[in-house]
Specification:
It is a single chain. The protein is α+β, with helices and mostly antiparallel strands and 161 residues long. It folds into two domains: 74 residues, no CATH class; 78 residues, OB fold (Dihydrolipoamide Acetyltransferase, E2P) (Beta Barrel). The protein has five helices and five strands; from the N terminus they run αααβββββαα. A hairpin with a 2-residue loop joins β4 and β5. α1 packs antiparallel against α2.
């Protein structure tokens, strides 16, 4: 593989492999710097630059791009709070009681935005229709709610529980 034309093909294939690997692998920007480094080395190979210089440029460009993209990758891969996904998005949302929530943990009906949910009260007390409530928890297909006036009169440490 002393021929410059052979190295052109090696760099083209390396560029393609790194680029496809980046597109198909989870995570952010791990193989992209190497694809960019191989692309620059490909250009140098077509300009008939010495193979040692091509390798040095490949390594240098790859490391520089990797260092430049690491902060972006960390930000993109940062663990996202999933409490706003699925039914957990209802936590803290305002709702209105449609069908009375009976005392003793029986189920009533509330409307959260445009959705209707089966509901229980947080303390097992009855909540009449038309009462403004706030979603405190989601358990399966029902929400646990507290009347808004209960929230305003509760002690702050009771709300955090």
């Amino acid at each position: 593989m002393d021929s410059p034309e052979d190295w052109r093909w090696v760099w083209i294939i390396a560029t393609a492999v790194f680029a496809i690997g980046e597109l198909t692998s989870p995570g952010s920007f791990f193989l992209l710097p190497f694809a960019i480094g191989a692309l620059v080395a490909t250009v140098l190979a077509f300009l008939d630059v010495n193979i040692v210089i091509e390798w040095l440029v490949f390594v240098g460009v790859s490391l520089a791009v990797l260092a430049a993209l690491r902060p972006v990758a960390r930000r993109l891969n940062r663990s996202v709070d999933d409490s706003g996904v699925g039914s957990r998005r209802l936590l803290g949302q305002a709702a209105v009681v449609l069908r009375q929530i009976p005392a003793g943990g029986d189920v009533g009906l509330v409307r959260v935005d445009r959705e209707e949910w089966r509901a229980q009260s947080t303390d097992g007390s009855a909540i009449p229709p038309g009462t403004a409530v706030r979603v405190a928890d989601v358990q399966g297909t029902r929400v646990i709610v507290a009347a808004v006036d209960q929230l305003s009169t509760s002690a702050p440490d009771e709300l955090e529980q």
